[in-house]
Amino acid sequence: METDSVYVDTLNFGQQIVRKYTEYKWLTNGKKQPLLEVTEENAITQVTYIDSIFDPGVGIEKADIRKPKYTLHQIQ
Question: Is the pTM above the cut of 0.85?
Answer without folding.
Answer: no
